[in-house]
Amino acid sequence: MTEQNNLIEDELDTGHDYDGIRELDNRLPNWWLMTLWGAVFFAIGYWTFYHGLPIGNSLEETLSALKNERSMAEQRKLEALIAQGQDPGSDEILAKVIADEVRVKSGKTIYDSSCIACHKADGGGLVGPNLTDNAWIHGAGRPADLYRVINKGSVEKGMPAWGQPLGVTKVQDLVAYVSSIKNTNVDGGKAPQGEIAPK
After folding, report:
1. Are the CB atoms for 176 and 118 separated by under 8 Å?
2. Within a 10 A sphere around the Cβ of 41, how many other Cβ atoms?
3. Secondary structure of the chain as H, E, C letters
4. Which of 15, 157, 171, 187 is the most buried (most CB within 10 A)?
5. Rounded to whole angstroms, how far apart are CA atoms 139 and 157?
6. Are 128 and 119 in contact (CB under 8 A)?
7. Distance, CA of 61 to CA of 50 (rounded, Å)
8. In whole angstroms, what is the distance from residue 91 CA to residue 176 CA?
9. How many other C-beta atoms are found inside a 10 Å radius of the C-beta of residue 98?
10. What is the separation of C-alpha 28 from the centre of its chain, rounded to a whole number of angstroms?
C-alpha cells in the first residue's frame, strides 16, 4: 500500500520541494468544484438578468419603487386622517405621539441623521436655532407649530421642508423628539432667538 501511495505521489509531484515537504498536484474535491462553478454560473445569470438584458429591475430601480411605495402609503395615511376630519399636525394627535416613548426614540434617530448639521447633536444650535431653550422663532411653542415648521420649512430662515422626504409619521416622530429636548437648556447652546413661549 505504501509503495502504491509512493507511485501515486510520484505521478502527482510538481517538482517543488521545500524543507522536505513535496508539493503534489492533487485534484480539487468535487464539492469544491461544484461550489466554484455554481458561483460562476449564478454570477453570469445574475448579471444577465439585472444588467445585461432588460428583464429584472436594477437595485436603483427597486429602491426607487420602494421609496415611491412608502411615499404613497404615507399619502394614503394622511388622506385617511383628513377624511376622518383629523389633522396629523394637530395638537391633539401630536400630544399622543409625544407621550409615546417609542415614537420619541424614533424621532431621535431621524434627528441624528437629518438635523444635527444645523441644530447640533445636542440640539444647542449651529446654523439653526437652539432647540433646547424656551424661545420660538415660528409659532408660540405648540406642537402644531413645530409640526408646521418641520413639515413646510421656512425658506427665508434657511429651514428646508422635511414633509416630502420624511413623510407624516417621521415628521410627527421628529416633533416628539424635539419636544422632549425643549426647555432642557443644554450647556453651550446658542442664545435664544424669537419669542419666549408662554407657560
Report:
1. no
2. 10
3. CHHHHHHHHHHHEEEEEECCEEEECCCCCHHHHHHHHHHHHHHHHHHHHHHHCCCCCCHHHHHHHHHHHHHHHHHHHHHHHHHCCCCCCCHHHHHHHHCCHHHHHHHHHHHHHHCHHHHCCCCCCCCCCCCCCCEECCCCCCHHHHHHHHHHCEHHHCECCCHHHHCHHHHHHHHHHHHHHCCCCCCCCCCCCCEECCC
4. 171
5. 14
6. yes
7. 10
8. 11
9. 22
10. 44
Share above pLDDT 90 across residues of the chain, in percent, rounded to a whole number:
18
Looking up cell 419603487, which residue turns up?
65
pLDDT tens-place string over residues 110-138: 999 999 998 989 988 888 888 888 888 87
Write out pLDDT tens, residues 135-189: 888 777 789 989 999 999 888 888 889 988 888 889 989 999 999 998 888 888 7
Q: What is the reported pTM? A: 0.59
Rounded Cα–Cα distance for residues 123 and 170 (Å): 18
C-alpha cell of residue 162? 422635511
Q: Are the C-beta atoms of 112 and 173 separated by less than 8 Å?
A: no
Distances in Å between the Cα of 106 and the Cα atoms of 115, 166, 176 are 13, 12, 9
**Residue with grid cell 424614533, as numbered in its chain:** 106
- Structural Rg of the chain based on CA atoms: 31
